[in-house]
Design brief:
The protein is of the alpha+beta class and about 110 residues long. It folds into two domains: about 40 residues, no CATH class; about 60 residues, no CATH class. It is about 45% helix and about 15% strand. Helix 1 crosses helix 2. It is globular and about 45 Å long.
Length: about 110
């Protein structure tokens, strides 16, 4: 864990600066804009509290997900699908518009 913390503290600020510079140089790049939003969000990450364990309902849903969701990121609350996206960053953006008190399990369906 010490090595992980060291890498994060050394690399994360550099990644933030690079994303800020890149978004100004390449304003039409959706991928760079997404990285900048994730790295430099003024509101901080989605869910600053420690993750809660998955419920039995969510785990059961994950055992038999719909084929159409294979390869996608999903956010679940119980058996309810709150959001689906191809990329994790897009899913996070969608979740930002949900009630912050609503808990969601985020998982990529393989």
């Amino acid at each position: 864990m010490d090595q992980i913390r060291t890498l994060i503290s050394e690399c994360y600020p550099r990644a933030q600066r690079l994303a800020s510079e890149a978004v100004s140089r390449f304003p039409d790049s959706k991928e760079i804009a997404s990285a900048d939003r994730v790295l430099n969000s003024p509101t901080g990450p989605v869910g600053t509290a420690p993750p809660e364990p998955a419920t039995d309902e969510e785990l059961e849903w994950l055992r038999h997900p719909p084929e159409a969701l294979r390869g996608k990121w999903v956010a679940l609350s119980g058996r309810e699908v709150l959001a689906v996206a191809e990329k994790l960053g897009d899913l996070v953006q969608t979740l930002r518009s949900h009630d912050p008190r609503e808990k969601a399990l985020v998982h990529r369906i393989e």
